[in-house]
Write a structure and sequence with these properties.
The chain has ten helices and no strands. Helix content is about 70%, strand content about 0%. It is mainly α.
Amino acid sequence: MSTATTTTPLSKTPAGAPDPGTGPGRALPGEGRIGLRANLRHIGALARRNALQIKQDPESMFDAVLMPIVFILLFVYVFGGAIAGKGNNDAYVNYVTPGLMAMMGMNIAMAVGTGVNEDFKKGVMDRFRTMPIARSSVLIAKIVVEVGRMLIATAILLGMGFLLGMEIKTSVLDLFAAIGLSMVFGASLMWIFILLGLTMKTSQAVQGVAMLVLMPLQFGSSIFAPPTSMPGWLETFTDYNPLSNLADAARNLVNGGPVAHSVWMTLGWSVLITVVTAPIAVAKFRKKT
């Protein structure tokens, strides 16, 4: 007795047609929306990777370690007498040190742009973009590590300031508030420099454009000298300069004085810069070839 079996022939997928198992209607493994917990885990892993890079290349910390020492010595002993008057270096230390906290943030932020540009050249970013991770986590991890470098630079700056005679005329909590405000503003600036790093073709071009932005903002501010000593047109520019708001906020938090306006202006600038530049930077990161 024989039994007949029927078989259904398998139809071959026509050339050029999407595979039904991997077509647009079905997500690949690892694709899809990434949850907050997973995103934080990815940021932590990538931040650890960036920190290990610094450990393997200690020379990359030279700017964060040496720059605050050079700047505070330069401005206190070279320009302090001319700005505050001969013999008034102690008073000028209390004026310029909180302002230099704002300057540290801008200079450290510039390094993020050059780092992103170099990582793309090495192919590191291309590997990250093939992984099932949020694209923003790659950039946020770099910001986390750079904020750590900024904290180190600020600690060295304040240490030098105390050695040169700086005094806290308010409280330690106010000093911490000034440091925190500088970190928030510095982190927002990093998105600008990340965008520059994703847009410019070379790291030298990133540095060149960054310096064109940095120089007017730094020296056309209240970081080094009171705006009242400047020409009227420059004093007007200084009033709208976000670095002046940060310098005034940090200075008044340390030395005493009205802080509400300058603090809210600094926070407002930080939010505005982040809201505008962060989405553009992430989109540019996704599409960069």
